[in-house]
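Tutorial, part two.
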Amino acid sequence: MVNPELLVKNNVPVILLGVQVTPRRRFEPIHLPYKLPSMLYEAGFIFVYH
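Running the prediction step on this input gives:
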């Protein structure tokens, strides 16, 4: 497992795939793919869409 704090600290970018898809796990909220970018931004991640 990757330590998220190390990614932010070292400015490692994250690539988001499939934003317009439903979550793979039943317990995840249906709107999670749309909410994830704001969650990453608030946590200080650098990210791009693919």
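The longest strand covers residues 14-16. In part three we will examine how such features are distributed along the chain.
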